[in-house]
Design goal:
alpha/beta, 2 domains, five-stranded parallel β-sheet, five-stranded antiparallel β-sheet, 12 helices, elongated, arginine biosynthesis, Arginosuc_syn_C
């Protein structure tokens, strides 16, 4: 950067990459570093990051519990849309980046920092997500992305740098590099190592949150999930906050082997990437939300919503959470959720989420009309004849022309 950087706010996990980045920023830019560590449900203590930052001489250290904000303001709105990227990915990493970018920008303003920095690589999507979301909130913010500047372009070089500078390395297995992992309330992801060959099956020891379906209990567990206006607000009669809901479903779902996926996805930057994900809560939430919508949403509203969903999911995947088109779609999606209230009963069994019941005070399901028994005149079957003939009219005309 041409301009002198005096202070930078770093998105800091306390892990290998960001610990190296903190030290590298101090050396390469001769600047003061402010660290920001967010607890968004990664399942690990975040306080140790404070000691690591202090050991590098960092004075301004932000450590914040953002679990409820993350679940309430980011994950829940996304799940109202039933968002899923390329039919498989539940957007666990993607949806966390807007919140982190937002706090980076806010902390930079609070501390008088000149720039923000992140640990995303120059090959990944996260660099795009962090920076697009940051620029949407502060068009003048400066961004430092070390992976696009330095020559530490492999896990081995990073570890050598860490050893030289006395930075602790966790999860090191002999000479083998650890997986690149990201975790939050919604998921944990794995990339790198043997996963770089899409033919290789993941090691069973890699998975952290879920048991394998083969080792899951032989008896299913039933859950009753309560919804209000499209949001999951309780489990088995107990009202919970969004973060509590997700923590509970992650635990129970993990015990029953729910939520493992192995995906090759198309990154926004142009390459294909193989990753493995554990998303127990999200897998249950997606299935249950679609179930409650099935009895509360009008057909055309539901179909239009499904048509919008891939566009909405792609916007989140590509880093456009704060863009006007995402906000426009969100307003439309939220409008559809006014009557998405009721209860869904699911059965969890050996990796499967099976919907076994759904009910709502606003249900559009009419037993009198749908029954195969005597409907007592609720539906006149003779009406179907004219309906079919009108819809067949253009098809008959086409068929005549083709003779």
């Amino acid at each position: 950067m041409k301009d002198k950087i005096n202070k930078v706010v770093l998105a800091y996990s306390g892990g290998l990459d960001t610990s190296i980045i903190a030290k590298w920023l101090q050396e390469a830019y001769d600047c003061e570093v402010v660290t920001f560590t967010a607890d968004i449900g990664q399942g690990e203590e975040v306080e140790p990051a404070r000691e690591k930052a202090q050991a590098m001489g960092i004075r301004e250290i932000y450590i914040e519990d953002l679990r409820e904000e993350f679940a309430r303001d980011y994950v829940y709105p996304m799940f109202r849309a039933n968002a899923i990227y390329e039919g498989e990915y539940l957007l666990g990493t993607s949806i966390a980046r807007p919140l982190i970018a937002k706090r980076l920008v806010e902390i930079a303003e609070e501390t008088g920092a000149d720039a923000i920095a992140h640990g995303a690589t120059g090959k990944g999507n996260d660099q795009v997500r962090f920076e697009l979301n940051a620029y949407a909130l502060n068009p003048d913010i400066k961004v430092i992305a070390p992976w696009r500047e330095w020559d530490l372009n492999s896990r081995e070089k990073l570890m050598a740098y860490a050893e030289t500078h006395g930075i602790p390395i966790e999860n090191k297995k002999g000479k083998k590099s650890p997986y690149s992992m990201d975790a939050n309330l919604l998921h944990i992801s794995y990339e790198g190592g043997l996963l770089e060959d899409p033919w290789n099956e993941p090691e069973e020891s890699m998975w952290r949150w879920t048991v394998s379906p083969e080792k899951a209990p032989n008896e299913p567990v039933y859950l009753e999930l309560a919804y209000e206006k499209g949001d999951l607000v309780g489990i088995n009669g107990e009202r919970m906050t969004p973060a509590q809901v997700m923590e509970t479903l992650n635990r129970i779902g993990g015990e029953h082997g729910i939520g493992r996926t192995d995906i090759v996805e198309n990154r926004f930057v142009g390459m294909k990437s193989r990753g493995c994900y554990e998303t127990p809560a999200g897998t249950i939430m997606l299935k249950a939300h679609r179930a409650i919508e099935s009895i509360t949403l009008d057909r055309e509203a539901a179909h239009t919503k499904d048509e919008l969903m891939p566009r909405y999911a792609t916007l989140i995947y590509n880093g456009f959470w704060f863009a006007p088109e995402r906000e426009m779609l969100q307003a439309a999606i939220d409008q559809t959720q006014q009557y998405v209230t009721g209860t869904v009963r699911v059965k969890l069994y050996k990796g499967n989420v099976i919907v076994v019941g759904r009910k709502s005070p606003y249900s559009l399901f009419d037993e009198k009309i749908a029954t195969f028994e005597d409907d007592e005149g609720a539906y006149d079957q003779k009406d179907a004849e004219g309906f079919i003939k009108l819809n067949a009219l253009r098809l008959k005309n086409l068929a005549k022309r083709q003779r």
